[in-house]
């Protein structure tokens, strides 16, 4: 059986020697491999050093640059939109193109936030709760899954503990269905209303893939949706 090709959106980072890099985090790459997919990197299309740029001050994507992204995405069976610190226009365009193309999508942390904001001028709200949403703990808080949701079905639980690495959160699901919340009401997971697999989670299932059955089931369901 042919393994699905999974495009992971590159994240722009600065190395210890001040070199500008486009990277994929090892945990994401390994989770895709162990779940039966083939990971490849989707690179940004503009001829700039992204780490030196302020996203809102950058030139808009040209039609040619959009086509570069489309060509990369069309090669893939599914897309993983990972977490990160900055949202660039190419992130928003990729999210929009994937959603409109009805291609399988897994959004993690900022990736979920992009699913909720890619086509709207929505300001993410700062976390202000007794629950710590940015923690180095392996298990930071509990998420509660909505009854009859796809996420609850594949995880086989109505609640479980997750890690948490975000400073801000979304307040609107942008047409997606909210399927998990934290105790303080913060949206923790969204899913599409159609048959195609499009899931966003605010936590990082790739970080505890080996320890968490729920995390493994999320990645396995993502890959299996393309088989």
From TrEMBL:
Gene Ontology terms: cellular component: cytosol
Lineage: superkingdom: Bacteria
Gene Ontology biological process: polyamine catabolic process
InterPro entries: Class_I_gatase-like, Peptidase_C26, PuuD-like
Keyword annotations of the record: Hydrolase
GO MF, one example: gamma-glutamyl-gamma-aminobutyrate hydrolase activity
PANTHER family assigned: GLUTAMINE AMIDOTRANSFERASE PB2B2.05-RELATED
Name recorded for this polypeptide: Gamma-glutamyl-gamma-aminobutyrate hydrolase family protein
Species: Candidatus Fimihabitans intestinipullorum
């Amino acid at each position: 059986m042919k393994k699905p090709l999974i495009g992971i959106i590159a994240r722009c980072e600065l190395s210890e020697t001040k070199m500008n890099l486009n990277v994929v985090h090892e945990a994401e790459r390994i989770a895709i491999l162990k779940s039966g997919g083939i990971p490849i990197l989707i690179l940004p299309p503009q001829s700039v050093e992204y780490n030196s740029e302020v996203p809102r001050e950058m030139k808009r994507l040209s039609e040619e640059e959009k086509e570069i992204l489309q060509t990369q995405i069309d090669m893939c069976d599914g897309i993983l939109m990972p977490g990160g610190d900055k949202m660039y226009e190419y992130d928003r365009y990729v999210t929009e193109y994937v959603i409109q193309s009805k291609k399988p999508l897994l959004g993690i942390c900022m990736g979920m936030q992009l699913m909720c904001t890619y086509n709207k001028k929505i300001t993410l709200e700062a976390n202000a709760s007794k629950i710590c949403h940015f923690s180095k703990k392996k298990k930071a808080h509990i998420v509660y899954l909505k009854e009859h949701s796809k996420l609850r079905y594949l995880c086989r639980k109505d609640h479980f503990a997750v890690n948490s690495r975000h400073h801000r959160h979304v307040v609107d699901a942008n047409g997606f269905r909210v399927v998990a919340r934290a105790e303080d009401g913060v949206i923790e997971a969204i899913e599409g209303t159609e048959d195609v697999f499009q899931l966003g989670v605010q936590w990082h299932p790739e970080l505890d893939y080996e320890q968490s059955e729920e995390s493994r089931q999320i990645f396995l369901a993502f890959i299996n949706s393309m088989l």
